Amino acid sequence: MPLRRRFHCVAEEYGRIGLIIDVKLAQVTAMFLALIIAKLIPDIMDVGIWWFVVLLIICEIRPFYVFCFRE
Q: What's the pTM?
């Protein structure tokens, strides 16, 4: 199945759950929550960049799998 077709299938699944606007609003909310936590606990910004990279990879594993490999 071509990548574009997969994208439409995944988009249709998300469309059943909620509108794409709802997904984007949830992403913006998470970003602002992260900014609030960073402001409240400034020491968290002293953590090495590699911890953030590891956490990013861990959080991205499932969405990447669903988007690229799941049929």
A: 0.48
